Amino acid sequence: MTKKILTLAGDGIGPEIMTAGLEVLQAVAEKISFDYSLEAQPFGGAGIDAAGHPLPAATLEAAKKADAILLAAIGSPQYDQAPVRPEQGLLALRKELNLFANIRPVKVFDALKHLSPLKPERIAGVDFVLVRELTGGIYFGQHILQEDAARDINDYSTEEIRRIVRKAFEIAQERGKKVTSIDKQNVLATSKLWRKVAEEVADEFPDVTLEHQLVDSAAMVMITNPARFDVIVTENLFGDILSDESSVLLGTLGVMPSASHSEDGPSLYEPIHGSAPDIAGQGIANPISMILSVAMMLRDSFGETIGAELIERAVDKTLSQGILTRDLGGHATMAEMTSTIIGNL
Ligand code: IPM
Ligand code: MG
């Protein structure tokens, strides 16, 4: 059956890296006979321009009907003073589609090891997956701002914790069989509940080891010994912070994809980097995060493991051939990098 893919190109470099991602998708689809159709909708700043809202009603409708969603990037300084910001569209989309599980693989590429701000012996062997709860916690609790006081409520139910921790265990089962659950159990009630539920879930997965770590010390370990992580699972706010920390380990934002899953609806795939308005339209953006997001989509939404691996290996080979965009220290344009990746498929 034809798979319906919704594309949200968004702002800044979004449209150009989306083009690169779709070229790679088309090339790999021909090889593996993957049958798909594309629909594009405005989102983020482009949504504000087109319909006055970062998540226009038609975009949300299309998202609900899609089999998977590819998002490139949103945000631009021109909306800094706007009544609704592009980012609010992203939060609304996560909530509307119930995208509770944000998955970010962090893996060092041999050809890019030298870019890491860490010493070579610390970055060697880094290969973990960060699983962030994405639709609960303080992000979606009550926010009360008064003249002389403010309050944000951090809410978690056992069910919200259970489903995200299960997701982490399922991922760990296919990898190194270790889950590190990160909380602030020495202070927060939500974290005490989190730890208890994590223990219960661990009983369902006897082949996977569970360890707990407090978020402050986890932030240190991520710098001093990141290779010891296999799968990390944590709540929304800690995950927001730790995922940015994890993204600097590689020394570039340009090569990391992500996925956000719901229980049974469409998943969303996007680069972890932003819309880089300063280099938009110049054809020099690094398309790899977008291209690897396409690979994640093929594997996670459509079970096209071979297609995903073809893309991942082609990216690896391209990097080791020294075809590098400027952010990676080279001179390749986006088009050169994309066509080399397609040639290497
Ligand atoms: C992210 C971003 C978002 C978040 C912002 C844009 C609301 O930082 O995806 O990590 O905080 O979740
Ligand atoms: Mg963030």
UniProtKB/TrEMBL annotation:
Protein residues bound to Mg(2+): D216, D240, D244
Classification via InterPro entries: IsoCit/isopropylmalate_DH_CS (IPR019818), IsoPropMal-DH-like_dom (IPR024084), Isopropylmalate_DH (IPR004429)
Residues where NAD(+) binds: G274, S275, A276, P277, D278, I279, A280, G281, Q282, G283, I284, A285, N286
Binding residues for substrate: R94, R104, R132, D216
HAMAP family xrefs: LeuB_type1 (MF_01033)
Key words of the record: Amino-acid biosynthesis, Branched-chain amino acid biosynthesis, Cytoplasm, Leucine biosynthesis, Magnesium, Manganese, Metal-binding, NAD, Oxidoreductase
Subunit structure, interactors included: Homodimer.
Pathway: Amino-acid biosynthesis; L-leucine biosynthesis; L-leucine from 3-methyl-2-oxobutanoate: step 3/4
The gene coding this protein: leuB
Origin: domain of life: Bacteria
UniProt source species: Streptococcus dentapri
SUPFAM superfamilies: Isocitrate/Isopropylmalate dehydrogenase-like (SSF53659)
NCBIfam families the UniProt entry points to: leuB (TIGR00169)
Biological role: Catalyzes the oxidation of 3-carboxy-2-hydroxy-4-methylpentanoate (3-isopropylmalate) to 3-carboxy-4-methyl-2-oxopentanoate. The product decarboxylates to 4-methyl-2 oxopentanoate.
EC number: 1.1.1.85
Keyword NAD part of the UniProt annotation: yes
GO molecular function: 3-isopropylmalate dehydrogenase activity
Protein's name in the database: 3-isopropylmalate dehydrogenase
Cofactors named for this entry: Mg(2+); Mn(2+)
